Amino acid sequence: MNQKLWEKSRIAVLTIFVGIAPLAGTAGVIVPQGIPDTYAKAATLVAVAHGRQLNLRCTGNGPQTVMLEAGSHADSMTWFKLQPLLSSVAKVCSYDRAGYGFSSEGPQPRNLDADVSDLHDLIRAAEIKTPVVLVGHSLGSNIVRRYAERYTAEVAGMVLIDPPEQDVAAFAPEWAKSDEELNAQRFALIRQCEASAEKGELASLPALKACGVGSNPLASTKLNAVILAEKSKPAFWRTLLSELQDNAVVFSKPVSLKETHGSVPLIVLTAANTYAGAPPSVRKALERAREKTQAQIVATSTHGERWFVDNTSHDIQLDRPEVVAKAVAEVLQKTTAPDK
Predict the structure, then answer these.
(1) Alpha-carbon distance 237 to 310, whole Å?
(2) What are the chain's domains?
(3) Model confidence pLDDT, tens digit, residues 4-21
(4) What is residue 312's predicted lDDT score, i.e. its pLDDT?
(5) DSSP helix/strand/coil, 157
(6) Where are the beta strands (DSSP E) in 5-131?
(7) Residue 327 CA to chain centroid, in angstroms?
(8) ω before 109 within 30° of 0 (cis)?
């Protein structure tokens, strides 16, 4: 990485949000503190390839559309705080990726290419106007970037929420090796859970807890019952295993030097406390890996920025949804509304 790129990242990271002015148009918008029970049922089931359906949740109105892409093994519920804020200034859509939430299971493997293909099919089938502004959290940021590379004309801008560190082995080789060993254990457990689901043995909360699944404290009893029912199905575990296997490959590599997004407005949001639970020595190495990763991503666009968001975990959209909304609003202002 050249010196100018590093300096650009250092300057941008000095933008620390201690207090944010209310986003224009959001006055009176009440951000829910718990996940609404509307998530206990599907919204709009859109037919896509292979006779499947993807669950799409669109709200708000406006000449531009914002598409939200969740992180690994998450669904549209992760946007329950952000979507109301954005709905006051634009049309905003979230969805459940194949195999999660109310969406049909997708063909294997569930990798970036499969996710990008599904998103493209969804946008077309739902007749969503393009170009859109894409917002991706964690793994979702990788899906968004791949989509923008493949369908350049369909993307007006991007907001990437705490993109994970890539090429960790270059910064923390022992950590990377231990993570590989842990992955082997994770994958074995997921296979066991899939087998139990096939036999109908995950119908109770104690059984699911053995697979690392518990009740969501932000959800009602009604909604938790729906969430747990989804995770008792074999499709969830097959999807999870394939996704995590691909994650291990994706995040082991550095950001490609060939990746470019031209002059597309792009904002990377960096969480302050992503590695709060890691040992100090490891935390520093992981932060260096993320620093390089995110600086490289910012440099893929001539209009790239990086914002450091104080008082946040990796889930900035839950901890500080108003900051994400502000970033999206800035990107919307820099883009041209579609004519059709």
Answers:
(1) 34
(2) 3-170+256-334 (3.40.50.1820), 173-247 (no CATH)
(3) 333 333 333 333 333 444
(4) 98
(5) strand
(6) 44-48, 52-59, 65-69, 91-95
(7) 15
(8) yes
